[in-house]
Amino acid sequence: MRVLLLTPLALLAACSAEKAPAPAPSTAATAAAEATAPPAPPVQTPVTAREVHEKNDLYEFDYSYPATAGAVPELKALLDKELEEARRELKVQATEGRKAAKESGFPYHPYTHTVEWKVVTDLPAWLSLSTLVGFYSGGAHPNYVYDTVLWDRIAARRRAPVDLFASKAALASAIRKPFCQELDRQRARKRSGSGVGDIPEFSDCIDPSEQTVILGSSNGKAFDRIGVLVAPYAAGPYAEGDYEVTVPVTQKVLDAVRPEFKPAFVAR
Fold first, then answer.
1. In this structure, how many other beta carbons lie within 10 angstroms of the beta carbon of residue 187?
2. Can you give the residue range of the structural domain that contains 214?
3. Into how many domains does the chain fold?
4. CB of 113 closer than 8 Å to CB of 62
5. Is position 9 within any domain?
6. Per residue in 213-263, pLDDT tens?
7. Helix (H, G, I), strand (E, B) or coil at 34
């Protein structure tokens, strides 16, 4: 909703057409108006997301996270620390890359690093984030990988999603069949009409627990789905891009969850 605020200058312009100012209300009228007026709402300081953008001849750096993450002091501190570490590492690598390019007589192209954290699921006890980490460091083309943050609000600490399960092997066994079926379906769709057909080195299924696993929810109360984010080269050539596979939380998945974390999950 847009609220129109009249500045003192606007008020002055509105009154300039009148020959004389309107008389001020009486003291009694003013007191009555103040008594019936609703109390002013408390002033709240909004929690803003952090967004950093730097671009120069050496590198281009972008890092951001949403207000939901910034509202958690411990998580904000963790992300701010990662931001500074990533920026510092990019500067070092870019400086070395430019020096090597100059010594070899090759043109130098600025390095890049991009992180944009987004909310996957916001639950009373958990906050799940994911990001695509894009980078260029002098190769034939840019590349990217995935990353995730699963924040345990109760323990006030970051956890790896796979750590909520008895083991990586237990998680992989619980979701392997639906994951592989969906991965093959997406592979077939991407390769249909491309003329490449099956690619021997990218035809077998991969271990879903070795990819970036994220936890999601459709009901806002508990985790009821699992996402597997697959970066280029893991399941197909670079030209095919990434794969994103989502599988439901089933009883088999629940059986693989560690006892202390079972309340955080529900089967669909």
1. 19
2. 162-264
3. 2
4. yes
5. no
6. 999 999 999 999 999 999 999 999 998 999 999 999 999 999 999 999 999
7. helix
